């Protein structure tokens, strides 16, 4: 065992012990009640049964969803998946593959089994994961790799560390030339720019809902503080337009908080309020979507999409491809740094501060719908994964 690996491992144990009270506290919250016991205590999280597979590791919902066209093109039964979040886990269950939460790093030496290829999506850079996967025979591939504008300085400050980590990587498929240059600065090798693989995903709806006669605004994937700005803008917009709004919080554990906020603004006004779970006809002015998996179904009947996650500076925005695909006019914030590559391909988007959402809503009347310009070809990536897998003994 190399000295640096041993030092890093000891540090991971120390951090675990220091954070243990917080970890236990968070494990009782609904958002983490499955992921934390699985990741930090290995509860119902045994090692993979099968070996010699293609192992995909993703973080959350968006990355898990992006796996779909890749898994379909591989046409292989020899696939296993790990994820970090509950939403990512729930999405990955749809692929009917062996699925686990990725344990915290200190458990990985006792948990990882030999696989042929490890494909890691986006920015999931775990030193022990990469080191052990390589040591046990897997070729490590970074797919859809990115380093955001917001985090690049932090990466460069620890370039010596990321060079060690990236030495374990066989090939990096970067989202853009900018990302390629950033990986080069960190010591990565064998880098190819392929674009964002989310452009290759099939966008579908699962249900058909009747569109109301009024203009329909979908506030999708919203976060704390964003809903209030959006509601205020809608109230002003409603004075001059016949419109309804559906608010779809990003995290289901916030449904009740957002509903209480909506009640606050509907009381003492002429605005009516309902929950989507109880009123799928969208008969009121304000509607809380309190159900998972409905966002695309709502975009499909929406006229305007206010895309959350970018009106505050700590989230990084959300995927604009879905509302654009369904022909919504998109309004979003200025802090979309995690989705910068995707927004390059989506036209007719308004980027505004939260105080200007009302003006942006008014401006939609003179703007065309948003649209997606480009697709990417996954076949060269698939061929490379299969080639590497077949070479591994």
TrEMBL record:
Matches recorded under InterPro entries: Glycos_transf_N, Glycos_transf_N_sf, Kdotransferase
Enzyme class: transferase
Gene Ontology MF terms: Kdo transferase activity
Gene3D superfamilies per record: 3-Deoxy-D-manno-octulosonic-acid transferase, N-terminal domain, Glycogen Phosphorylase B
UniProt entry keywords in alphabetical sequence: Cell membrane, Lipopolysaccharide biosynthesis, Membrane, Transferase, Transmembrane, Transmembrane helix
EC number in record: 2.4.99.12
Top-rank taxon, per record: Bacteria
Localization per record: Cell membrane
Recorded metabolic or biological pathway in which this protein acts: Bacterial outer membrane biogenesis; LPS core biosynthesis
Catalyzed chemical reaction(s): lipid IVA (E. coli) + CMP-3-deoxy-beta-D-manno-octulosonate = alpha-Kdo-(2->6)-lipid IVA (E. coli) + CMP + H(+)
Pfam (any one): Glycos_transf_N
Family according to the record: Belongs to the glycosyltransferase group 1 family.
PANTHER family (alphabetical): 3-DEOXY-D-MANNO-OCTULOSONIC ACID TRANSFERASE, MITOCHONDRIAL-RELATED (PTHR42755:SF1), 3-DEOXY-MANNO-OCTULOSONATE CYTIDYLYLTRANSFERASE (PTHR42755)
Protein name, per record: 3-deoxy-D-manno-octulosonic acid transferase
Organism: Sulfurimonas aquatica
UniProt lineage: Bacteria, Pseudomonadati, Campylobacterota, Epsilonproteobacteria, Campylobacterales
